[in-house]
């Protein structure tokens, strides 16, 4: 096998893969669990008529329901992880399909539970508590159900929607097939003249090449691969967005955005405050791009020039082992208990890091309650990969702390706050590395560039993507089609607004809208930006006042979903309903751009 070829899954060393046996030791055990879940769902379904008959019955059914939900999570994670490790393998395809079908059957049988809870009156609930005090364990569940009551349908309607769950997920499934199994980026010559096969990770590496012709070729091939299937990608997006708009209408929400933010109990002002505040600071982003144009001496400066290091070849090329050492050192302010959990992750195959054919691109963390979190990476020896390791480990540690402190039904923290712990780790890593290279001007400039670009990508770019996502939903709601031309034109307009006058668009149609999986995650992108702003503040506090800030931060990690997400963050001293925390972070961004300009000038 050529050194430039992607490995087949069976050729990846075991220590570079995750240990799915921790979830189910054998395929037979997985199959038995699927059968068990269906049986549990049927047993719970038989209680529909008597669910609210008395407190004891309600408690028994809820306990059985959440125990089954935890099993459903294990089933889904096993099938998903097996599939994501190699989406071309029959075993993974079969397990994932079986998991989806099993969970759809379970959800269909038990949909009445969440549909019925909002029907409980305050008087009923008081009587239930008196008869069965243990129901207090679910008090916050009842409080949330009361708030969601206007949007819960009849039990029969909820059952029907649950039965259609797999169909609702079909656009995302199709997208993933297109994006990871079918797409072919072809080959190109590397800087040494060797023909190499292209993958997403390889292209991202080539974007940093000092050879502009290499960057251009990589970017052009990347775009061409998506353009080749742009009609299929556009149709997948159209169907997903339309489905969500339809669900919002069916559930009596004014819009899909209102539905998705209300589901997290987040006021829509959090979204609009973010967009408005980022618009205020677009001149700061434009200032950075002007600096990049000046330092690289490129006119025009194309979009494919935006990743090349400003100090030449990347000076940091860590191995996976080195990146682990960096993470442990950078996160030392969080205490020995945090580091011990991190070591457990590193040493016990919680991470699947090898890049192989058919593997899901990018990276993610997913918790399996009662087992441990799982992290997917596609490792390369770059600082970006080291930062991704710290990022996904932040997710994992939040899962560890929440699982240890909360029962299952309060352990799965809100998506709205999910990116705080991860991006906080990124900030702490970058701060640590800058202190280590304080006397090395080249490395310090490189790391400061990374900090600036981290804020640029996580706040400015994610807000831009959030604006694009909102455009898709409002366009579909107005009865207009999301054609490739419409999506490409809007992408170009937003890029021009956010990049400013010193960045020229690549000289081919911009179909970057086709490559972003988060558009299938329903108003999730803006949460990267809000979370990063919170994370920067928390990281600074932990570095300057650890005695106060670290315990507060661990309380945040441990809270899980035991309170409304806005309130969980507010207890840590940040009010996300106001734009102040965003403005403070973007002021830091502006200052770092000036500091970087001073460094590069000298």
Number of strands: 5
Percent of residues in helices comes to 55-70%
For the largest beta sheet, what order do the strands appear in spatially?
A: 3-5-4
Q: Roughly what fraction of the amino acids lie in strands?
A: under 5%
How can the largest sheet be summarized?
Answer: 3 strands, mixed
Overall average pLDDT: 94
Number of helical runs?
Answer: 25
Element order: H for helix, E for strand: HHHHHHHHEEHHHHHHHHEEEHHHHHHHHH
Distance separating the two termini: 47 Å
**Low-confidence regions:** none
Structural class designation: mainly alpha
Specify the overall morphology.
Answer: globular
What is the alpha-carbon Rg in Å? 24 Å
Walk me through the structure.
The chain is mostly helical. It contains 25 helices and five strands. The strands form two sheets. Strands 3-5-4 form a three-stranded mixed β-sheet, with helices on both faces. The chain has a two-stranded antiparallel sheet with strand order 1-2. Helix 15 (320-330) crosses helix 17 and helix 17 packs across helix 19 (418-436). The two termini are 47 Å apart. The model has no long low-confidence stretch (mean pLDDT 94).
């Amino acid at each position: 096998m050529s050194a430039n070829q992607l490995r087949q899954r069976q050729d990846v060393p075991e220590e570079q893969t995750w240990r799915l046996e921790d979830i189910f030791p054998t395929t037979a055990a997985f199959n038995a669990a699927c059968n068990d879940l269906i049986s549990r769902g049927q047993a719970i379904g038989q209680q529909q008529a008597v669910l609210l008959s008395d407190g004891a019955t309600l408690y028994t059914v809820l306990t059985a329901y959440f125990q089954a939900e935890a099993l459903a999570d294990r089933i889904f994670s096993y099938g998903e992880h097996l599939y994501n490790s190699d989406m071309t393998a029959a075993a993974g395809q079969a397990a994932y399909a079986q998991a989806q079908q099993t969970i759809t059957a379970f959800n269909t049988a038990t949909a009445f539970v969440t549909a019925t809870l909002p029907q409980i009156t305050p008087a009923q609930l008081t009587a239930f508590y008196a008869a069965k005090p243990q129901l207090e364990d679910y008090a916050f569940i009842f409080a949330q159900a009361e708030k969601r009551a206007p949007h819960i349908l009849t039990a029969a309607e909820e059952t029907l929607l649950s039965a259609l769950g797999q169909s609702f997920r079909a656009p995302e499934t199709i997208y993933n097939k297109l994006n990871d199994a079918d797409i072919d980026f072809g080959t190109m010559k590397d800087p040494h003249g060797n023909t190499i096969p292209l993958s997403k990770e390889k292209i991202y590496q080539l974007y940093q090449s000092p050879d502009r012709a290499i960057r251009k070729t990589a970017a052009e091939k990347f775009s061409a691969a998506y353009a080749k299937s742009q009609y299929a990608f556009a149709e997948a997006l159209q169907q997903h967005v339309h489905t969500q708009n339809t669900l919002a209408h069916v559930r009596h929400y004014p819009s899909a955005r209102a539905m998705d933010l209300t589901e997290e109990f987040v006021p829509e002002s959090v979204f609009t405050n973010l967009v408005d505040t980022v618009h205020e600071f677009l001149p700061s982003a434009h200032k950075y791009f002007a600096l990049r144009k000046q330092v690289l001496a490129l006119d025009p400066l194309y979009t494919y020039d935006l990743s090349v290091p400003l100090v030449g070849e990347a000076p940091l090329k860590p191995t996976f082992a080195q990146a682990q050492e960096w993470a442990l050192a950078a996160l030392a302010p969080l205490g020995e208990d945090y580091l011990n959990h991190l070591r457990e992750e590193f040493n016990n195959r919680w991470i699947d890091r090898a890049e192989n054919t058919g593997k899901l691109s990018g990276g993610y963390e997913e918790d399996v309650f009662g087992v441990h979190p799982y992290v997917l990476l596609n490792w390369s020896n770059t600082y970006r990969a080291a930062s991704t390791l710290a990022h996904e480990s932040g997710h994992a540690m939040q899962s560890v702390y929440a699982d240890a402190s909360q029962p299952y039904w309060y352990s799965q923290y809100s998506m709205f706050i999910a990116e705080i712990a991860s991006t906080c780790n990124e900030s702490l890593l970058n701060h640590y590395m800058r202190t280590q290279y304080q006397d090395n001007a080249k490395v310090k400039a490189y790391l400061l560039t990374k900090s600036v670009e981290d804020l640029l990508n996580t706040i400015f770019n994610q807000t831009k993507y959030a604006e694009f996502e909102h455009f898709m939903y409002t366009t579909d709601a107005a009865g207009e089609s999301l054609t490739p031309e419409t999506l490409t034109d809007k992408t170009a307009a937003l890029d021009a607004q956010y990049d400013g006058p010193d960045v020229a668009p690549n000289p081919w149609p911009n179909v970057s809208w086709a490559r972003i999986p988060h558009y299938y995650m329903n108003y999730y992108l803006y949460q990267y930006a809000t979370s990063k702003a919170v994370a920067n503040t928390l990281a600074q506090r932990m570095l300057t006042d650890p005695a106060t800030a670290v315990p507060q931060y661990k309380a945040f990690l441990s809270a899980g979903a035991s309170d409304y997400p806005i309130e969980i963050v507010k207890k840590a001293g940040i009010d996300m309903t106001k734009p102040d925390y965003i403005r403070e972070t973007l002021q830091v961004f502006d200052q770092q751009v000036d500091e970087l300009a001073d460094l590069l000038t000298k």
